[in-house]
Amino acid sequence: MSSGHISFKSIKFVGMMKVTLIGAGNLATQLGKSLKKVGVIISQVYSRTEASAKSLGELLDTEWLTDIAKLHDEADIYIFSVKDSVLCELISEVCKGRGDKLFLHTAGSMPMSCFEGKTKHYGVFYPMQTFSKTKDVNFENIPVFIESNSIETEDAIRRLAYKISKRVITLSSAERKYLHLSAVWACNFTNYCYSVASDLLTQHGIPFDVMLPLIDETTDKIHKISPKEAQTGPAVRGDRNVMNQQLKLMEDREDLQGLYQMLSKGINPHIETLD
Amino acid sequence: MSSGHISFKSIKFVGMMKVTLIGAGNLATQLGKSLKKVGVIISQVYSRTEASAKSLGELLDTEWLTDIAKLHDEADIYIFSVKDSVLCELISEVCKGRGDKLFLHTAGSMPMSCFEGKTKHYGVFYPMQTFSKTKDVNFENIPVFIESNSIETEDAIRRLAYKISKRVITLSSAERKYLHLSAVWACNFTNYCYSVASDLLTQHGIPFDVMLPLIDETTDKIHKISPKEAQTGPAVRGDRNVMNQQLKLMEDREDLQGLYQMLSKGINPHIETLD
């Protein structure tokens, strides 16, 4: 099969793949750019927010729209990258009358069953990464977790995924939920910890960038040893003296004090209640 | 002045620097290796734990001891890298009768005043990094925060620091406390988040290494944009649907549920109480 060829039992797509993006947020932006780079044609970009639709449409040099009724049928694949809360409703609207198309969503926490009873060929295409509109990522190294409602659909999704990534993994909706939860811990909560560090430093006139070698090494370590083995600091040492001192430094931030205690207790359950 | 030359008002060290390490933990191990590599002579290694003393002594090919009374006076500089709780007592013992020596400690949260009234030449040498005995670090990129009780002492400490690091910064004890607190957030708590992610994945048969590209990108981002700008995920989007779902996935872990709620609230204070 040629690389632009997708086949289902009933239909065949030969030649250039055409994709329509439903949603124009961080993920849609980076995905659209990566797909375009490997020769996929971005047919249309929809977002209910005009600024987002226009901005991504212009970036990808394609038609953009805010009125879902104006979506045309030219694309082979429709990819939903929207807030979970509006996904189901949009799926119903977009799938209607397009039974020959392939529909995918990119949500870590939404099951594939969102599509059930609404169309014939569907699946999930979840590239696990933290996306920002303005910071480009190299999709090659991003693991893409896929799921599909049939073997033939899976084959099509896998080939789409391999166009942009070297790592494509089949995963069920149930497992993907835990993957997404883990990603929140490893990325979103981690970034919040950076944010707290940055605030504390800035308040005391110390530039955040002095922290970067430490942050880099913390990341580098867990490429080589497990996070449990890599754990250092006052909590794992059981150093109550330092912990109590540090709690006092955050006297004006009860929220941070509470978090500090809980995180320390997570690291070392043997820590008694601190002062 | 030659590079091996340290001068105080009253004393002079010319030639090879000789350092004795008080403590044989993670930091002492990495510091000792780095100092030895640049030609500093490691005179003795002390630890009250025989296994640690022996192991580092052998690693650095030098004398090791567990009896502080056997410490000799051959070194120019004595560096304390021990638990905060024993630091003051050890300082009193080691400084006694060694008024011509330079004494340093490497503790982020201990003030320089630990040395006050106990000796003449002293200071702090705090390399901000997460150290493990078994994982070597490149000291060159580690910022070393120094403090001293006189201009002459500072000059000596700075030259010692520049032997192993490209970034040497003078910082007061009061500021260093906040630096250390920030390091706990940016490194120790971050690593704990990795640890939680690892547990969740392992429990569901997913290998932790699928998380590494996401973790690398999370780190890479804050080299280019601030942590606040880099924040992504359900909390900052105000996506209560995902957050409530994820809380349910942790039903058997009340500790993680509590942390999840507090961290999400930290990221987005506008989040109402979750289900």
TrEMBL record, chains A, B:
<feature type="domain" description="DUF2520">
    <location>
        <begin position="142"/>
        <end position="265"/>
    </location>
</feature>
<protein>
    <submittedName>
        <fullName>Predicted oxidoreductase, contains short-chain dehydrogenase (SDR) and DUF2520 domains</fullName>
    </submittedName>
</protein>
<dbReference type="Pfam" id="PF10727">
    <property type="entry name" value="Rossmann-like"/>
</dbReference>
<dbReference type="InterPro" id="IPR008927">
    <property type="entry name" value="6-PGluconate_DH-like_C_sf"/>
</dbReference>
<feature type="domain" description="Putative oxidoreductase/dehydrogenase Rossmann-like">
    <location>
        <begin position="17"/>
        <end position="111"/>
    </location>
</feature>
<dbReference type="Pfam" id="PF10728">
    <property type="entry name" value="DUF2520"/>
</dbReference>
<dbReference type="InterPro" id="IPR018931">
    <property type="entry name" value="DUF2520"/>
</dbReference>
<dbReference type="InterPro" id="IPR036291">
    <property type="entry name" value="NAD(P)-bd_dom_sf"/>
</dbReference>
<dbReference type="InterPro" id="IPR019665">
    <property type="entry name" value="OxRdtase/DH_put_Rossmann_dom"/>
</dbReference>
<dbReference type="InterPro" id="IPR037108">
    <property type="entry name" value="TM1727-like_C_sf"/>
</dbReference>
